[in-house]
Write a structure and sequence with these properties.
This protein has helices at about 5-25, 35-45, 50-70, 80-105, 115-139. The protein is mainly α.
Amino acid sequence: MDKPRYWRACFSGIIATYIMTVSAYWVSSIGLPPTDPSRLMAYSFGQAPYLFGLAAHFMNGIIVGLMYARLRSFVPGHSIWIKGIVIGILMTLAAQLLVGPSVGPKGFFWQQAQPLAVLATSTIAHLVFGLALVASYEE
């Protein structure tokens, strides 16, 4: 196993988080509800400014990038596509089961007005994140 490249992991986390955030807004063009992860993060801080939520959102991306750099040999698959999909699925599960209930005003996705649409938005955004993270780190 080669040595982790931590600076590259930080940069990859920022890139992947940006691409994910854009895709979370883009899904409205295919009829899914858009989401604003930064606003959800700001909500978790109480009456915190949006900038705090934005910083927390990007810090999460950097942390996941660093975790990927350190643990990537344990991620199943040999191609960027498979590894990215695995990361995306893991991030969707973490977002819906761990993060969502603590940051969102309505908690779990199934407590939303359109639970499957909200889950689809989250899944698409996190798959995009996983693919962007792995592609930017490995290339």
